[in-house]
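Hi there,

I know you've been waiting on this one. I reran it after we fixed the sequence typo, so this is the corrected version. Both the input and the resulting structure follow.
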Amino acid sequence: MSIAALLPASLPAQTAALFEEDPTGLLPPAQAMRRLPADLQVHLTAGYLALRKGAFFDAIRSLRQAEERQANPYVLKALGVAYYGAGQKKLFALKMNQALALQPEDFAPYYYLGRHYQTDYADCHPAAEYFEKALIRNPGHYRSHYHLGACYEELRRIPAAGQHYRRSLELAERAGRPFGQPYQGLARLHILDGDWSQALPAAQRAVELGPGDASALKLLAQIWKSLGNLPEAVRQFQKAAELDPADATVQYQLFRLYQAAGENRLAEAALQRFRWLSSVYRSR
């Protein structure tokens, strides 16, 4: 899982604004922040801003200084995310569990730990339990609804998956946040039902909301391919390849589509690219 999956959406640069809008609970609300000792505020804010820049080791240094002054849940959560970004997954889990011990009513550590198990271990059983606990504490967290839906989909609890995808969409739209991933989930569920008439618009909406999401483009391409619209499938796979040039599966799909269309030169180029990417990533 990339660190972007853990961090909240981009926030305004002004420190005051950061305290007012923090969807994943890494910083205390402004009123609570003002009650903290001044030096703790400085180190916590510096650590958070370093996180936003992806400067994880700088963040760790600042947040460890904050932890020495007061190991409160906000310091521990931010430090956990910094450790995650630096590749220290065990320390990430340790800090999140320490934050839970201090503030068990907080949803955020449950959410982060759910993402950790879902992505790093591909284990949806504990991940779903964490997301369920996050939603008990914060029923309006649309990302927890989405990821719980994805876990339920993986666990073949299809009706529950659909319910959480739709709830995630409702909450995200109410908050004015473009969030296309639940539409991808609904499209996949429609495909399972064989309902292509509903799968196509759901996938198209996912692309509209997330034009930079290669997975949305690949899903839309597969649907067009299954519907027999090969030129449109090629177009969407080409866009996905531009966004994620290291994805060998996209090159293979393009090879098959070019081959079916009699575009032998393009098919050969895509096949060579697929073989090269496959060999590179096998050797790592």
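Quick highlight: Confidence is low (pLDDT under 50) at residues 7-23.

Best,
R. S.
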